[in-house]
Amino acid sequence: MTISVPQVEKLHEEAWRLSRCLSMGSHVELPSLGNPLEEEVNGSLRFSLYYDQLQSRLVVTVLEARGLPVRDFSRSVDPFVRVRLLWARHDNEEEKGEQSSPSLQCVLHEWQSRMVKDSSSPTFGDQFSCYMEEEDVPHTTVRFEVRDFDKFSRHGFLGEVRVSLCDMKISNPLEVLEDLQTSQKDMVGEVLLSLKYLHTLQRLEVGLLKIRALPQQSKKDKVRLYARISVLCNQFKLRHQKSTAKTLCEMTVFNEVMMFTLPDPQIRACCIVVSVYEIHAARKSSKRLVGQVTFGKGKGSEDEHWRLMMRSICQPIAKWHPLLI
Questions:
Q1: What value does the mean pLDDT take over residues 141-166?
Q2: CATH fold for the domain made of 187-324
Q3: Which pLDDT belongs to residue 236?
Q4: What is the 3-state secondary structure (H, E, C) of 218-284?
Q5: Domain 42-179 falls in which CATH fold?
């Protein structure tokens, strides 16, 4: 049986896509462990911004991308653009008592352009708009993420552009061309977690205590939060548990403990991912990822928390962690 070159390339492509899916587990991303797809960024994105003062509407149009990199095996790319509006709290709205971090933001709106198949210089022409008070415009950042569509759901990262509207004059439509940059995470909240490992029982206890996040005051429908805690070993998801859903407020209290049985070899090689989701009762497709916390093998504060847990004797260690998106 003879296999042609196109068939070989197709088999390589499917194997590459499948490896990306299996290596990370479904619905789990690792924001703190580094991503080889983000090491090199090429290309540019053209878009336009406009604030209609009469109607109090922000209009964002994704026009086109140019010079996007292609995949190694197939020499193709299926790009689309994800748009997020990030709103930062006004300085005079900080609480006098227990203050949130000054860099804390919330996602006001999130949109996605259509996917353009097999094009490194796609034309989109997708327009999105939302109601926005004029006083909120200077506190808003528009984040464009250019991604490579993947049918296994783990879309490749091609680059991003972010624009702070406080620096832009958009009372008339403004067209902008920007080079793509490497990814930067935004802090959208904080999570108070406790960790305890019982060596004799080989049991890990993860306590979800509190989540601090900015409520979206413009949202009229009821929003609830829940967390999904996943245990990964060598990047393969072993198991997960979900918390109950609580009504979102600036300080949402959970006080729930989730237990995982992990033998000593696994506890030394595993990784914990805490994914926080919000759900809207009035929507059919209600679940949206708010942000994640990851305990990996790096040198961050999350890993210091892990080391303190391993050195403690049957005592829970609690610590605040940034929630990133």
A1: 92
A2: Immunoglobulin-like (2.60.40)
A3: 78
A4: CCCCCEEEEEEEEEEECCEEEEEEECCCEECCCEEEEEEEEEEECCHHHHCCEEEEEEEEEEECCCC
A5: Immunoglobulin-like (2.60.40)
